[in-house]
Amino acid sequence: MTQPVTIRRASRPRPPLPEHLRTALSLAVNGVPVLPLRRGKVPFGNCHSCEGNACGGRPNMKTPGPCQCPGICHAWAAATTDPDVIASPAWAAAWRRAVCVGYHPGGAGLTVVDLDDADALTWARTALRATRTVPTTRGEHWIYRGSMASRNAVRPGVDIKSTMAYARYLGPGTGAMADLPDAVRALAVKEPSPARPAARAAGVPAGANGEGCPHRTPAYLARGIAMAEQRITEASSAVHTTVYRTFLAVLSRHGQCGCLTDAHVAQLFAAAQSRGETARHCADAWTNARTTLGL
Predict the structure, then answer these.
(1) CA-based nearest residue to 100, from 31, 15, 18
(2) Bridge partners of 164?
(3) 7 and 81 Cβ atoms separated by less than 8 Å
(4) Would 188 disulfide with which of 61, 82, 151, 222, CB 3.0-4.6 Å?
């Protein structure tokens, strides 16, 4: 008797992974936290549940993993090395729309010196230790081993991207990576501002007129920052103007007595960057607002 023939359907080939997703997974294997960047080369905006840091945000702006949201939220803090998260359905749509891969240098123990023009490159070649370099549209990224605080516009055409920041991945680069030199760390040291009083002992801080600080409690200031973030993230148009006016409002209310910290400023910048503003636009808007108020 002839045996019945079993016909097996050929399994459909899996569609190839998006190029940016493949790049991200290869970086993550090497311990580099990654995230997709959308048009404008900026992070995707927070999901509805995380708008205005409704989820609690990232505690003290120190660590990634701000909440249990499976989406791509909180800008640089979304960067991860977990392949299950990177290739998850929650991130799939973002990878299809991504224009490039971003990474968190500080999370990988790295610092990127972003040199944005020919003058910056000339300065770096004489002032900084040679290291791995990656060409950019207008200049180069110099990548060092070691992390530090990030800061924009440390000198004309020079930004530092390390902790609490993201950089575009533009390829492996060339040259041996050097340890982070003190000359780079020194660039991020801020000169004391005459408008900001020295740190005071714990207790109710004094205002400019010697009375109690108008913030009254840390919760008052935190609420003001959260409201400012929400105003930026909910802007439906004229985002650049909204960012500037929000910065102006925050500084007019909270900029006189020295209670604003770098963490508060970073929160506002992150909100602006989630809506497409570049780090440089944020720094310029903040500086212009301070200048307008005479701070």
Answers:
(1) 18
(2) 162
(3) no
(4) 151
